[in-house]
Structures are given as structure tokens and as C-alpha cells.
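Meet today's protein:

…
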Amino acid sequence: MVGSGISGLTLTLLLAMNGRKVLLLEKAPQIGGSLIRFYKNGVPFDTGFHFTGGFSSGGVLTDMLHVLGIRDRIKPIFLSTPEASLFLFEQDGAAYNMPSGTDNFFAALHKYFPNESTAINAYFARVKKVYQSTVTFDLRKTSLSAEPIDEDFISLEQVLSSLTANANLKGLLSVYCLCYGVQPKEVSFANHARVAAGLYESVARIEHGGEAFIRAFADRFAQFDVDILCNTSIAECADIRNNCVGEFVLENGDVVRADDCTFTIHPHEVLKILPRQHLSKAFVDRVSSFETSNGFFSVFGVVKNVDPSAFGPSIVSLLPCPDLNVLLDPIYKGGTALAVIRSVEEAGDKTHCVITAFEPEFFSNISQWADSSVGRRPAAYTEYKARKVEEITRRICNLYPQYREGFSVLDAASVLTFRDYLFSPEGNAYGIKQKMGQFNLFGKLPLVNLYVAGQSAVLPGIVGAMLSSFIVARSLIGKEKYNHFIEGSLS
């Protein structure tokens, strides 16, 4: 297994639970990928995992955690009040408190847009159709070859424009594009609906953040035949006979023999490892053409002298305008979207009121410093970063003027930071873009004992990454044995 983000962790455990001996390789010093937390002045901060949907009763995330035997270890903190999820369009000052639960979200939209009932009804009816037609949301029916539906071939933008001309309503219905980094004109309505449906039903942070997942998986690994090797990856596929890789040469020089290997890393990185003489030009061109998603510029801060019981959790999305095509355009130079997350974090015997804020950032924004490394950045980059921190701090304090005196920034990170610490190409947040009509890299690779999962293969985010591993696990374990395993785990 190559890569120890949530997809690699999930597939490793699924294989181990079904009697396979697994070697998990991770290029970073520790497993977890963007699930990892870091500590600054004793305060814990999330790097790339901040919240998730899919935690409703009977939801697919709940089912997956039950199968893996870690549901009791993952404790959701639901953003259950209307005030916990606020969308603010700065262009006209319009503010929308959107409650948790699909029916509640639906009702709130009708309250805010009383003249748009027909559009709202039609949109949610179509979302429901997509969700019910997506067999991968039922672990008993996972398949590598799910049949596409009509909504896979029409963009989110086309659907919204056919329903309404109200810019703010279109903005609210497309705002979750920020959760996967693809413009409404580029993403299919179906994939947007698959992501958004889980977030309409519930939005939750996790107690102890991504660390809770890492610890739970690590404890489960100890019960099975799993070895973990960090600070290395595969440098070369060797001893290839009958289109099957016999040996894997690691970056540290070790040689490993294995029946099969699954990559859960960025497709461009997979392409670098695969032997080109065994790949068709069409395959190379397809994978090379995948566009990497945006990353984020993040600010990590703490608020002193406030009552933790009145401090979140909450997510406020500040949007300069309601047009997500503009806000997710790499060449756009105007104001940026900004997500501001409040949370109360326990570390040791101390309680911290934490604010994490992040705005979309594209590699093109910092490409002039791409050749620099941690601790060796030029002065111009330092100045750029300082300006970004100052502007984001100003927006946070305008949003929460009561915190102005107590708020302090402890750290900040650009996409370069994420690239160098998380080994994420271009510091992207979601792997490749999940664009309409794109044939993603997923399942079996051209060499017969190599597979790939994760990286937006099914859907972006933690739910999609885990689902991709369940689907690939079915091929590796065998349909009959896998189905028996799933039925036994969910019964």
C-alpha cells in the first residue's frame, strides 16, 4: 500500500481484516496525510481535515466506520444549530444561517427565497434522485463500474441556470463547490449532488480531529498483520513478467516482493513510478491531463479570555460574491472566499478556543517561489505570507469584533507549506479536480497487479476517499468473500 491518507488507511485495514499481510508505505515521517494535526504553543490545529458530512444515522460514513471496527472511536461534534453554519455574501451583506438536516436546510431556503419555491423544489428533487441512484452509497452494492445517470452529463451551472436567475440562491446551492475545488461550470450536477447531499444532512467536526482517525487505525493495525514503513515510497517497479510486477524497489534501497500493490497517492505521482514502456501513450496523456485542485492559505489562531461554552463549534463562509465560477478561477484577482472555523480543543489539561481560517490558493499564486524549501524561502515570499495573514486577520476581527483584543495568530501556511510537509503535489487539497466527463484513475492499472484508489477517484473528501477503498477492496479480496464480510459486519 502506497500512501497513508484516509484512503490508504482504510484499504490497509480492509485487506488486513480479510487475512492479507500488508506493508504500508508513507513518504512522510508519520502516517495520516492531511489527517495529521500539529501543535503550536501546546494548541492543536488541523491541517487538512476540518469537517465532514455523511454522519447521519445509516449514512455511508457511519457504515464504513462500523465495518472497520472504529465507529466508537470517532466521535462527531455536530454543527446542529442554525448559527453554527453561516454563509455571508459580502457584496450585498446578505447573511444566511443554514440549519443542519436536509429538511431544515430546504425549509430555510424557502424562508430566505419565498419567490423561488419552484426552483428550490426542483433542485432538491434532483439531488434526491442522484443520491438514490448512486449504488456506491450502499456498501452492499459497491462496484467499479457503476452505471452513469443523466446528471453525470450536465454541469451544476447548467442545472442552476435552468432553475433560477437569483444569484444568491445559485451561490448557496453551489457553495459546497468549495469542498472539492471545482467550478460549477466544470463539475457534473451528479457529483455535486453526491457531495452536497451528505453535507445538507449533517456537518460535523470530529473530537480530536484527524488524530482520532489516525489513532483508531493504528490501534486496529496492531491487531493484524500490518507493517508500516515511513520516510519512503516506491522508486521503481522491477522484475516485470507477463505484465505483472514481481519486485518493488523502495527509495531507501530495500526490495519488496508482493502479490499486488495499491497506490493512494496523486495520479501524477503514480505516473512517475509506473514503467513507461508498459504504458500506452493514451494512458499517459490521460493521466497527465488531470488538473490538480486548489489548495488553501491557512491561518491558525487562538482566542484568549473567552467562555469556551459560548465558543462554537461553527463554520462561517465569507464570500465576496455569490459566483463560485469566479471565486474558484485561478486567474481571478479579486477578493477571496474565506472559511472561518471555531472549535474548542482540549490538549493536556488545558482548553483552547481555536480559530482556523482558510481561503482558496492556487499554485500559480506562489509558483515564483516553487523551487524554495522550508527554512529557505526568499524575503518576497515572507512578505507575501505576512500580507495574507494581515488581511485574513482583519476579516476575522471584522466578523468577530468581540475577539479583536484576544485573538492572536500562532501560525500560517501556504500551499508551499502543505506541499513540503504533506508531500502533496502543488499543495493541493483534493488531489485532482473531479471534472465532468473525466475518466479518473481508479481500480486496476495497466500492470495487472497494480491498483489505485483515493484522490477524488469516486468523490473528493473523506467519504469519497474511503468509498474508493471499499470498492477496490472488493476486487482485491474477491466478490464473494468481500460480500460475506460486509454483510457480517453490518448485520
The longest strand covers residues 350-361. DSSP finds 16 helices and 19 strands in the chain.
